[in-house]
Design a protein that fits this description.
By secondary structure, this protein is mostly beta strands. The radius of gyration is 14 Å and the shape is elongated. The strands form two sheets. Strands 2, 4, 5, 6, 9, 10 and 11 form a seven-stranded mixed sheet that branches. Strands 1-3-8-7 form a four-stranded antiparallel sheet, with no helix packed on it. The chain has strands spanning 3-7, 10-12, 18-25, 30-39, 46-52, 57-59, 67-72, 77-82, 91-100, 108-111, 115-119. The mean pLDDT is 96.
């Protein structure tokens, strides 16, 4: 069974930094992309950052220059380094993966359970 488990959330002051981690467990064939989404109270879930198997990345405009996504293919893990955090970054952050469980099957999307990030003084 494929699972994504996030860690690293919590409370941080404005201007501070935090690193989120997500590890994929379970037997899979290959990963197409992994990424991070977030959902603030009363708002829709939005994509924050995404990294593809070939290494290219994309970011939501408001986090460009502050957040960095990285990936450890050997560990099936993805990380989000968040710097210069702002109160508007407060949200539940979800790990996401598009992958093939078995060769020849369709691409399947998986979500983690989410981790709360609160930016407040």
């Amino acid at each position: 069974q494929v699972q994504l488990v996030e860690s690293g959330g919590g409370l941080v002051q404005p201007g501070g930094s935090m690193r989120l981690s997500c590890v994929l467990s379970g037997s899979i064939f290959s990963i197409y992309a992994m990424g991070w989404y977030r959902q603030a109270p009363g708002k829709q879930r939005e994509s924050v950052a995404r990294i593809y198997s070939i290494g290219n990345t994309n970011y939501e405009d408001s986090v460009k220059g502050r957040f960095t996504i990285s990936r450890d293919n050997a560990k099936n893990a993805v990380y989000l380094q968040m710097n210069s955090l702002k109160s508007e970054d407060t949200a539940v952050y979800y790990c996401n993966a598009d992958l093939w469980v078995r060769a020849g099957e369709r691409l399947t999307n998986y979500w983690g359970q989410g981790t709360q990030v609160t930016v407040s003084s």
